[in-house]
Amino acid sequence: FQVLSDEEKRKQYDAYGEEGLKDGHQSSHGDIFSHFFGDFGFMFGGNPRQQDRNIPRGSDIIVDLEVTLEEVYSGNFVEVVRNKPVARQAPGKRKCNCRQEMRTTQLGPGRFQMTQEVVCDECPNVKLVNEERTLEVEIEPGVRDGMEYPFIGEGEPHVDGEPGDLRFRIKVLKHPVFERRGDDLYTNVTISLVEALTGFEMDITHLDGHKVHVARDKITKPGAKLWKKGEGLPNFDNNNIKGSLIITFDVEFPKEQLTNEQREG
């Protein structure tokens, strides 16, 4: 009866039960909010330290890295000089980690108002300074056009978070002799009319300098193709597997009519 006749104690009893009357328990709108909503209530701004904040990131940078077909065949290490902005401490303070938070205000018995406001921390001031550094990119044998090599944290900085990534995108240059199609190499060889009729032998210099021997003792028609297995590019996933070298023969016909001697010959 004492509890019910005392308005303040009755509020505590309604909110917390008998435990609320022990040890001089004092109520507050924060306690009442957590009593009704539990820890879930803090998602609405009750305690910002319990909120899961997303760490801001700097922008990613994508740079085209031109490689030759010789590098695709044999592999290589390429050094790239990078001028990267790096955050360094500077005098003074600055606002940082700004975020939107919900604030709860008690307007009266059982009445609450939730408002949104921008809250910032105070951090040491920083300035961006360009630093030169050398990055080494490994061009793996069989690398494909458009593949990317990431360098974590080498992208644009973010003064309140983590830097982005730097990604080198492979761009294979055209070759004057060979054309790539998957793991296969294509090339054209021009032979004379005599060679087309009587046969021929020749060596083709490959991308790493070794010689590919080609011999024919049959008639070779214009546009005829010859496959040399294992003389293509190494497979990126398994360098022990190589594609084929496909040779297309073009026949060069005489620009002038044959003489009687040439016909008899």
TrEMBL record:
GO molecular function, a single term: unfolded protein binding
Query: Boundaries of each Chaperone DnaJ C-terminal domain copy?
Result: 63-254
The cross-references to InterPro entries, in alphabetical order and at most eight, read: DnaJ-B11-like (IPR051736), DnaJ_C (IPR002939), HSP40/DnaJ_pept-bd (IPR008971), J_dom_sf (IPR036869)
| Origin superkingdom | Eukaryota
User: What GO cellular-component annotations does this UniProt entry give?
Assistant: endoplasmic reticulum
- Give start-end of the signal peptide: none
Which organism is the protein's source?
Tauraco erythrolophus
Q: Which GO terms are recorded in the biological process aspect for this UniProt protein?
A: protein folding
Kindly give the PANTHER family that the UniProt entry links to this protein.
DNAJ HOMOLOG SUBFAMILY B MEMBER 11
Q: Which Pfam families match?
A: DnaJ_C (PF01556)
Can you say what this protein is called? DnaJ subfamily B member 11
